[in-house]
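Q: What would this chain look like folded?
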Amino acid sequence: MAFWIFAKQNCDYAVIEVGIGGEHDKTNVIVPQASIITTIGLDHEKIIGPTMFDIAHEKSGVIKKIDQSY
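A: My prediction, written as structure tokens:
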């Protein structure tokens, strides 16, 4: 729905928040110009992984080879 609204409004840019994960998130249908990971913590370990490494790996799934990541 949000993507449709952005297209109808002829938006040049949009900020899209990823859900709990990253690699398997529904927002992966877009090609970002930049990705920002704000925090990596143990707040969803039962869903995306029991370790910090698992969580970081899942969240890093939003990073594409063509974007700038922060």
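The mean pLDDT is 84.
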